[in-house]
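Fresh eyes needed here. Kindly weigh in on this sequence plus structure tokens:
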Amino acid sequence: MKKKSYVKSLFFLVIGSLIVIGGSFRGYHYFHNSQALIRNSKLYLINGIFQTCPQKEAVSTAQLAEMLQLSLNLPTHLLDFDEKEAKKRLLNFPIFKTVEVSKKKPSHIFIDYTIRTPLMIVKDYHDALIDEEGVVFPYKPFFSEKLLPKCYIGLGQDQLGNEKKKLAIEVLKISQKYLKSLGFQIHLIDVSQAFLDSYSKKEIVLTINQSYQGVNFDYYLRLASIDLDKQFSNFLVLSKELQKQQKLWIKLNGQKPPKGKVIDLRLDGMALID
């Protein structure tokens, strides 16, 4: 009796295994055939890129296609498109801050991205910008003409490029905090000599401008890299006297713009005016 039961169990085990193997084979055969159909179908040739970005189409769809080497003339098959590789390729362009890439059957690519927000124009290079993280990225063809402050960092002069970039951004933020409400325009931040060994040559040069009754008054502030808040506070006190000088200049010279003034604020509690 036990022998018959054993044989019967073995029989059902074999039959069950054959059913599973047969089902797996049919599944593989179906998958293989469906992949072959997709591979040979023109419906799965990529013909559209859809993008989302907080800044409306900061990068054009044509530019995205070029970056990903996608073309309608030589279309890429959806099965050959690797989302991870596409994301990596886009992030190689420093303008992108974040990127997510996905594909949707039969023939579309979806790209969600954010771009870097420019703080200043970097004069060390041709057509370059810098953001708050200190990342330098190209100005053209992604941005239109903007009135941004300029900075000269002195990149390549030494091994202090990152420190200089951080300092330039710090100077911009602090100067905006103190000077914007008084109507001063920030034109150039030069930190190329901020870390020199010689104290007399070690300086940040901030070029600012203030317009009064249609006349532009330029000022060149020489700053130390430490106690910036204190130096700008001293300049605010001095700015009241500068306004008096502006009124007197216009009274005596009319609309003729004066020569720019150099104001050295590096010494504690002092302002040397040239």
